[in-house]
Specification:
Layout: E1 6-9, H1 10-15, H2 30-43, E2 49-54, H3 57-60, H4 64-72, E3 76-79, H5 83-93, E4 96-98, H6 112-115, E5 120-126, E6 129-134, H7 142-156, H8 164-170, E7 172-175, H9 182-186, E8 196-197, E9 203-204, E10 213-217, E11 221-228, E12 234-241, E13 246-249, E14 256-258, E15 278-285, E16 289-296, E17 303-306, E18 317-318, E19 323-327, E20 332-335, E21 339-343, E22 369-373
Parallel strand pairs: 1-2, 1-4, 2-3, 4-5, 13-14
Antiparallel strand pairs: 5-6, 7-10, 8-9, 11-12, 11-21, 13-15, 15-16, 16-19, 17-18, 17-20, 19-22, 20-21
């Protein structure tokens, strides 16, 4: 195998408006020839390519015969969504990747991306000449990854934010009327995950596939993510609604979330979380700014915060019990030294006609504890 063999994101290349014909926002097959030639000019004629494309590319391509010819001979691999195959081939065969996609939504499944940034390359055009340069892969925060996963997952539910009807669906609060539905029982009369929409426009519960009941426009919500600290394995996600304090712990409680969900034995680390461990609130300040405030409820094994510096987390700092602490949007809480709790990067689309807050994601601000002692 040649040191400079590469897997090529063919759809990404053909759709790229920076390649000639510059500015054309439809896929052009000739763009692939330009990029392959630029790579060989830089790394030699012996470099071999593995070509991978989305199946949908052929429907918009100017020269479908080129696509179909390579596909029929086995020189072009196609998938409904090519990204997963591109990354698997690059990982397993040690290939370079030619793309302009940073694959943020695949960073969890493919941690090697951030460990091997030199294997990712993009094309550029200078003075009419196509060249190859580093893609500049940099570490992504958990919130950034969550936002990318959200965008990918919305495609799977066939919901698109640029469709007015779909925006209305995304901005609506839904209820599942099926009393036997696990989703309905978990969220107590309100569905807080994205619904599924059929091609006919029917809105369904993602768990039981029965039609949902519309309850009106959705209020601002944020999502918390719970992970095992040692493996970063995600355990669950739950919503935090603005100005609605929520108790987090191991065990059911009024207006509370049970992180164990009755499954503490499957995750022994959860046994280090107290039954009423933490009080969390998203506060709305003067209608324009929001902040997240947490209070350790005298938990047995304590709570710590790790501040995000922009490139890494600071060492964990213990929280004083019964004192408010302001948490930045990218900070991470550590419960009992064993469980990570952080805000997701997800945000929920507002209902049509409603103004979207300027600071939809909780802002990052200084995180020192204040002097207010909580009583009662």
């Amino acid at each position: 195998m040649n040191t400079w063999d590469a897997v090529v994101d063919v759809s990404n290349v053909c759709w790229s408006p920076v390649l000639p014909p510059v500015g054309r926002r439809t896929p052009v097959w000739h763009r692939l020839d330009l990029v392959l030639a630029a790579w060989r000019d830089l790394h030699g004629a012996a470099a071999r390519f593995t070509l991978v494309a989305d199946e949908s590319l052929v429907r918009a391509l100017d020269m479908a015969t080129g696509y179909q010819g390579l596909r029929d001979t086995g020189e072009l691999w196609t998938r409904p969504i090519a990204d997963a195959l591109i990354l698997e081939l690059a990982r397993d065969d040690g290939l370079h990747v030619i793309t302009r996609d940073h694959y943020i939504d695949y960073r969890l499944q493919h941690p090697w991306i951030e460990n091997s940034p030199g294997r990712f390359h993009r094309w550029s055009v200078t003075g009419g000449r196509v060249g190859i340069e580093p893609l500049d892969i940099v570490p992504a925060s958990a919130q950034t990854i969550s936002r990318a996963i959200e965008a990918r997952d919305l495609k799977r539910t066939r919901l698109h934010t640029n469709d007015p009807e779909h925006r209305k669906i995304l901005g609506t609060r839904w209820k599942c009327g099926n009393t036997l539905c696990a989703e309905a029982a978990q969220w107590q009369d309100q569905l807080l995950t994205w619904p599924v929409v059929t091609p006919e426009g029917t809105v369904l519960c993602p768990s039981c596939n029965l039609p949902l009941i519309a309850l009106g426009p959705r209020d601002p919500l944020y999502e918390a993510v719970v992970e095992l600290r040692d493996s970063r394995k995600e355990i669950m996600r739950f919503p935090l609604e603005v100005n609605s304090p929520l108790i987090v712990g191991r065990g059911s409680a009024l207006k509370g979330v049970d992180l164990a969900g009755g499954r503490a034995s499957s995750h022994p680390a959860l046994m280090r979380v107290s039954r009423q461990h933490l009080l969390a609130t998203i506060e709305d300040l003067s209608g324009t700014t929001r902040r997240m405030v947490v209070i350790d409820l005298e938990s047995r094994n304590g709570t710590a915060v790790e501040r995000w510096t922009g490139a890494a987390f600071d060492p964990p700092r213990p929280l004083s019990p019964n004192r408010e602490t302001v948490i930045g949007s990218k900070d991470r809480l550590v419960l009992g030294g064993a469980i990570n709790l952080r805000l997701s990067g997800k945000h929920y689309v507002t209902y049509p006609g409603r103004a979207e807050p300027a600071a939809l994601a909780v802002s990052h601000w200084p995180g020192a504890e204040n002097n207010a002692t909580v009583t009662g």
